[in-house]
Amino acid sequence: MTEVKGARDDVEYDLVPVTVSVTVTDDGEGNLVAGTPTYVKDGATGSDTITNLRTVVLPKTGAAGIWAGVIAGLAIVTASVIAIIRRRKQ
After folding, report:
1. Cys-Cys with 40: which of 14, 19, 28, 47 at CB 3.0–4.6 Å?
2. In whole angstroms, what is the distance from residue 21 CA to residue 43 CA?
3. Please, what is the average pLDDT of the chain?
């Protein structure tokens, strides 16, 4: 069996095929009994686990947004200083 790749770009899907084997026996009373499944992945017998990895992309920081804030702050301080100087001259 294989996992079907989903639509999410932030998930790395586990596309490695897993072979599942189940032995079915007749219990002698007309009933079929399934044994414990065996999972083989990458040539190794073992777990039935499929591993998906999620990629987290952090937003970029410290780019143009910080400079816009600094310039806006300087403009406000400059306007305030000019207003104070004009009031004192009157």
Report:
1. 19
2. 14
3. 83
